[in-house]
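Follow-up to my post from last week.
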Amino acid sequence: MTTYIIKRVLLMIPTLLMIALIIFLVLNLAPGRPGQTQVSADGMQSSESTEARESYRIFKEQFNFDKPILLNTRFNLTEADVRSRLEMRVKFNKPVCPDTGEKPEGCVPVDQKPNSADVIKAVEEVEDWGAYIVPELVAIAADEQADLLLRKLAVVNLAANAQLRLKSQYGRKPTPEEREYNDNAQKENELLRSWRPSNEMPAEEFNKLVKENWIPWLEKNKQRFEYSGGDKVSIFFTDTRFAKYMYNLARLDFGVSHVDKKPVLDTIGGKLKYSISLSLLSILLAYMISVPLGVWSAYRQGTRADQTVTLILFMLYSLPSFFIAVVVLELFTVGTPFKWFPTGGFGDAGADTMTTLEQLKSITWHLVLPLLCMTYRGLASLSRYARTGVLDVIRADYIRTARAKGLGEPMVVIKHAVRNGMIPILTLLGSLLPVLIGGSVIIEVIFNIPGMGLYLFESILARDYNAIMAVLLISSLLTLVGLLVSDLSYAVVDPRISFD
Amino acid sequence: MATDSDKQTSGSLLPKDYKTYGEIVWEQFKKYKLSYWSLWGVAALFVLAIFAPILSLNVPFYISIPEGTGPANLAGVSFPWFKALFDVNFFESGVDIFFNSLIFTVPVVLAAWFFISPRWKKAMIKDKYKVYRTNFWLASSVVVLIAALIVYMVQFSQPYVDYQSISKMDGVSSIYPLLEFSYRDVDLSSVGVSPNGVHWLGTDDRGRDVFTRMLYGTRISLTIGILAVAIYTAIGMVLGSIGGFFGGRVDLVVLRLIEVMLCFPSFFLILTLRGFVENASVFHIMIIIGVTGWTGIARLVRGEFLRLRRQDFVQAAIALGYTRTRIIFRHVLPNALGPVLVSATFGVAGAIILEASLAFLGLGPTTAPSWGQILTVGRQTKLWALILAPGFAIFVTVSLLNLVGEGVRDALDPKMRR
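User reply:
Got it. Predicted complex:
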């Protein structure tokens, strides 16, 4: 048995890795980005927009959204790549040539005007390329033949892209050495930011700025932007979203939520108790009711009572749980006609001041309706399986033998019929678990229970990547554990099954 | 089971009361009265879905506008209902255009069938008649689908005309469908009306007629239910047969894949996928349900393949040197279809509930009149008609499908033969 469990637990690791991969791909290949602020392409150099862009850039950096998804080839970017992106943005900000009359200087013909979606993409790309394009940006800035606006834009981007990354900025506390490094980096970044040209800066002054500040700075820091073959290989594979994600997972670091900036693992830990207690209670309740019901109905096979129960169970199975939930909520909580139960939540607000008994009572009171809505469908299918299971064994020889040797009917039913008839419905436990965990979303949303389902739902609406990934991974892990438990339970019920 | 080519060559050698496997199953199925009648119930749902515009649409079948009344270009007799059916401004979803084209093609096909089949029956021997019958239905489904596709591809549209106010003018005579509502036209003058003679189920928070929305919602539910299951059945059958037939390492990969998919709480995965599609259409929803639901079918087909692969008729086919494709598609797969059919029937019921759940959470198709969406509005506005009507509709549809599924399961089970 122990070896079997160890084997199964070890097998979970590759499965979980696959799951992590799938979740990663689903989230990252989907269109759209989280927390994307309304990026407007115009007003390119106003200080306000520069600051907004800076905070969005930091956000992307924090959550690794500035990195390519699977493989990084950014060390191969050329000056032409960068220039084309910058030119697009410069063109976008210039006036369109009028059809008739005098054409203002530097106007753009209508058919050459880029559309805003392309411009936004170009802006993001230049931002995301980060330090990889610093030499190229300096080269563009130093190119005196080029358009002044283009060169200024290059320097504005340079001031952002050339900044040093701080160490352990997000997450755990930095060590003293790291803090020292960060302080120096902060100072350097401050300096770089101060070399940003203003909109009105005349050409001579701008040339001076580039020649006196940026070019010497690049000379000094040249080694930062030169990549050897080994560097390139390591960047190719490791400086990507996927590598960072897997590295963080390996340290059990699920990151922080975009929404409340708290570690998602802590948040989920707090919510898990609600979801697990709800699912476990629901499973327990379903089995506790369905097994006796199935046995009862199997022993009255063909009678009116059996037919009625079967019909009711069938109808229950076809009723969607959100419908029942809305109906009971309307009937029993708002006071038309009854006001017996609270409308939602997991317990009363002042739970800390109550005694344990009062707390228990309050929780029970809150849980009656959600549990009812969560349980009845599982209950319906389980009872039908239980009935068939008992019907299968009820005519077996060993039941007749048990009766013949004079055992009382309760003993025959409980020890011989039920125990054997229940093996098939134990196999259902494994498939019931993911359904229950998944189905809890609707119940938690309707009854406002702060569990995993509600959290996932809210995270999806807010596109909170880290939270979604963590919830999916943890719920899959729970399912895997549940499947293992259900497999082990066969051995407990059926002595013929052993894992050794 | 005999394949088609066997049937044709050896038809005359078979005993007179010879029945194909399909016929035996159908006869058995008919003995389960409740399931049999449920099948007719499902058919009735389809009829409702197809002919919904005859019951409710805010465009007249026929309108006659005298000279000098209303817009000049509309003067005279016209039949705007027929044009509106294929108007993409009016029915923006491909699902609606498809069902609207069925209004015309289905009666034609049925009429052709009732005209031809007695003649064929008289003129032909039984086996030949069966082949003709199969070919007729295959050909007519293809024609119907192509007709729907052409209608959709044309993207016909015309300028909007407010026929309802024109009809109220003097001297204008018109014939309308039973109810004069559209499922999407907002009418803020009648918000939250309780059920009455005009609005049979009342109106919702934007003054749209609930009965009309329920009626058109049937189209959405049935389409998503059936196509989503078709998608995942296809995926499951391909993966399952690959794993089961080739075995070994291929099987291991397929099994791993199934196991991984099985570990996701499927509704979580569906929600996540849906969350990342902006402005989801009916087709997005069915694809999302389709790509997440295939594990059951794949396991089933894999199991059947493993079982059938060892059987003599497959061994014989291998010995005869048939190609792998032929063995898989003509010998093994037809025999594995029974359990798949049962699972798919229950699957349609499940997919309908899934779609309604998504719509209930506000993550359904954005513009379509889905049952789940009506229920959400009912929950927000506390209008009982809006809660009970969709709940009841889902309940009836799902029950009918589940009953059909039970009948099919029992009919396929040799132990249950009556």
